[in-house]
Amino acid sequence: MNGTWLGRRDAVAKLLAALLVTAAVVTTLDPAASLTVIGVLLVLLPFTGLGLGTLWRRGWPILVSAAGIFGFTVLLGAQDSPVVAHVAGLDVRENAVGYALRLLAVGLPGFVVFATIDPTDLADSLVAHLRVPPRFAIGALAALRLAPLLAGEYQLIRLARRARGTKAGPFSTLFGLLVAAIRRGIRLATAMEARGFDRGEPRTIARDTRFGWMDALVVALGLTLAVAVIMLKFART
Amino acid sequence: MSTVEFRGFGWRHAGRKAWAIRHLDLRIEHGERVLLLGASGAGKSTLLAALAGLLAEDSGEQEGEVLVDGRDARRQRNTTGIVFQDPQTQLVMSRAGDDVAFGLENRGVPRAEIWPRVDAALSAVGFPYDRARSTAALSGGEQQRLAIAGVIALRPGLLLLDEPTANLDPEGAQLVRTAIAKVIQDLDATLVLVEHRVDEALPLVDRTVVIGDDPDAVWSPGAPLPARRAVTAPGEALLTAERLALPHTAAVVDEEVRAGQALAVEGPNGAGKTTLALLLGGLTKPRAGRVTASAALAGRDAGRPPHRWRARSLATRIGSVFQNPEHQFVTDTVRAELALGGASEATVDHLLQRLYLDRLALANPFTLSGGEQRRLSVATALAAAPRVLVLDEPTFGQDLRTWRELVTLLADLRDEGRALVLVTHDPQLVAAIGDRRLELRR
Amino acid sequence: MQTRWRTVDIVVASIIAVAFAGVFYAWNNLWNALESFALPWRAVIYGVWLIPAVLGPLVIRKPGAGLYTELVAATVSALFGSAWGLTVVVSGLVQGIGGEFGFAATGYRGYKLVNALVAGALSGVGAALFDLSVYYGDTFTAGQKWTYAALVVASGAIVAGGGSWALQRALSRTGVLDRFPSGRERVAV
Questions:
Q1: CA–CA separation, C77 vs C67, rounded Å?
Q2: Mapping DSSP to helix (H, G, I), strand (E, B) and coil, where does residue B64 land?
């Protein structure tokens, strides 16, 4: 994956850290807790090799969702929350801020984690450390590799329908895509079996999957942040 | 080096009435290099799959035996390696080195041994990049060579190649053939190769075997091919491409598509042939430059570029036939496909007959064989009676008989006054009916 | 009935999951666009997310297909970029379990329309329980919660259940499912 310190850490470690943080954040609507998480992630951003530009380009749906739920709650949400600000004649309450920030605090760790995890490393790590059956992990990985091809086929199928003279809707195109996807899947499965995939004997992993103290450190960091969030929540109620 | 023996072998895929292959007796000795030929649908791919032990017992019915080194092929999968024709769907991992290592991992080879064998296999096929190279960033020829590397890293005694160059441009095909020649020098393996381009495959083998009972359908060197160049002068320009920009290249295209003329568009993969086909077909919007249609072609849409025409009008003026026919199927039966644009019963019946699809009228289009699907997609484009026909690789995968039929049909259409645009790698197609050639470069 | 998954079962279930993860990407944006308008009512379109939990078992017909296909679809959609981050993986787990129950109840022997409808509804139950406890605990009134749950379950039954059933039958007619028991129902050609 990328060559940064975080990029080189074990995939399951990163996933576990992010899961811990997410689980903690999800239990509270406190804006302070969410802000802490967001702050820490922004501070860590340089270590992930992701620039703010990439964050914007790939993460804008998260911002849009947060803005959406902010707007909804301001206009239609419950009225029993303390008012935090008064903008343009509308009362901005704490719950609106809380929802919006929580969405960001939940979305960001997931985003960062997947941006620094290479799918192959994830599959290796799941097999090596969590005893996930290799046939399933690698099978899913192989199918994932075909995703860009499927996207390309979707475009072609859409154009092919225009060429046929029908303005067929997304369902027809989706069906065509499913047929093409399943066909490719069957050919891929055959090729994998031809290379000995399903022999029923233990596989080795060609890549290094050691779980070192630096990986444990990542988990510890996640745990610390999660605990901090929970403590903040209790301190402020 | 393995021996191969088929004794009265037959196979019928589940859900089919006809046998894919039947009553086959064949013996191949240690170290022989065999080229397998036969008509489309004669069962060559089934045969190779049987040798590779890939025909699961629950996926069909078997007669007779297929033996590798005297034992059932399914038990000898360890000594057999097979390379398929679609480069994209046989690569498993996203990095080149990891993909070659895949087979070794499956065999339980210890990690310390894996990477030296990977490196050896990569250099044996002349792979031009290092292990970290993304498999998605490879050309078709490079992907096929990678696939071969993945197979030979396992040191098979029997190497099977199922049309390895079918999806490649001539340059890629040549590189792959060179890699194969090099690999069989070093590897002690028996080779069975299926290829349509016989002339180029012959130097690699020392024996040819023809499967099936249709020798006329087999490409043989020196077989007479129809020559159907246009005899009348071309008519008006129905489509004009002006300063049309294509991706990945700085050059622009200025070209006219004329009635009664077949324009052959050639060039390596990645030079933009398919993009040009889509642009001329009115399916995508040009990034720079334009495609204009003559008043005679555009009718009521005169003045508007084809990509802005409504789909129904477009289909009656410019028909497009895609490389993968399955992309264009929208209905449940062959007859419904042809009737889709509102064609009359009479037209539908006529097309069914002309393209030998009448007995398949009620079959689901996806269940047709590759050659039948291609004929169907040409028929559906014709159903709307367009004056211009754009075809992307129309002769791909055709045996000699269906090739001849298709070429005759295309020539007849051209002689009726239509304009044809043929995007193709097939030099024989160009020789047979190409009236004008456009060469795209990368 | 064989319960061990073949390679082709694993890869095809995965690729159905990947294809739907792509659909989710588009569908997620629709969901968020509706956010400002009709919070509980947008549950009507919920069923699309639950399709893998029902389509997987209908195609593969082996234990675990509902859970696996939905979980992989959810995880891959998180990979593509989802506003809900990792919670979508847990969502997928719960939805997949719901779908799985639907087919486990018949001992993995029933794959007709009624089985699909039930599985879709159960997947919706899982989804509604998760969402209401994690996301909407404080936003909705009790009445709104029941509306949401009812809509999600109905959407699950109709869109995910009925839709997947129709989809599987259409796929079977094309012959593309011939390697699977779900494809053997079609007449020999």
A1: 15
A2: strand
Complex ipTM value? 0.90
Q: Which residue type occupies B21?
A: I
With an 8 Å Cβ cutoff, the interface of chain C facing chain B consists of 6, 173-176, 178-179, 183-184, 186, 188-189
Give the N- to C-terminal CA distance of chain A in Å, as an integer. Answer: 42
Cβ-count burial B67-98 (b if 16+ within 10 Å, e if not): bbbeeebeebbebbbbbbbbbbbbbbbbbbbb
Closest partner residue to C174 (CB to CB) among B13, B59, B366 is B366
Backbone angles phi, psi at A85, to 5 degrees: -160, 165
How far is residue C51's CA from residue C99's CA, in Å, rounded to a whole number?
9
| C177 interaction partners in chain A (CB closer than 8 Å) | 182
Residues of A in contact with C16 (CB under 8 A): 178, 181-182, 185
Q: Lowest mean pLDDT: which of A51-55, B284-288, B332-336?
A: A51-55
What are B170-222's pLDDT values in tens digits?
888 999 999 999 998 888 899 999 987 788 888 899 999 988 777 777 887 77
Q: What's the rounded Cα separation, in Å, for the pair B247 and B270?
A: 9
Chain B neighbours among A 90-149 (CB < 8 Å)? 119-120, 138, 141-142, 145-146, 148-149
Alpha-carbon torsion (A177, A178, A183, A187), positive or negative? positive
pLDDT tens per residue across span B326-385: 888 988 899 999 988 778 888 899 888 888 888 888 888 888 877 788 889 989 988 888
Please count the residue pairs, one from chain A and one from chain C, whose beta carbons lie less than 8 angstroms apart: 156
User: Model confidence over B404-434: pLDDT tens digits?
Assistant: 888 988 999 999 999 999 999 888 899 999 9
**CA neighbor of B347 nearest in space, from B304, B403, B386, B401:** B386
Residues of chain C in contact with residue B363, where contact means CB-CB under 8 angstroms, are: 189
Q: Give the chain A residue nearest C11 (alpha carbons).
A: A139
C62-C63-C66-C68 Cα dihedral, nearest 10 degrees: -100
Are the beta carbons of B144 and B172 closer than 8 angstroms? Answer: yes
CA B424 to chain CA centroid, nearest Å: 11
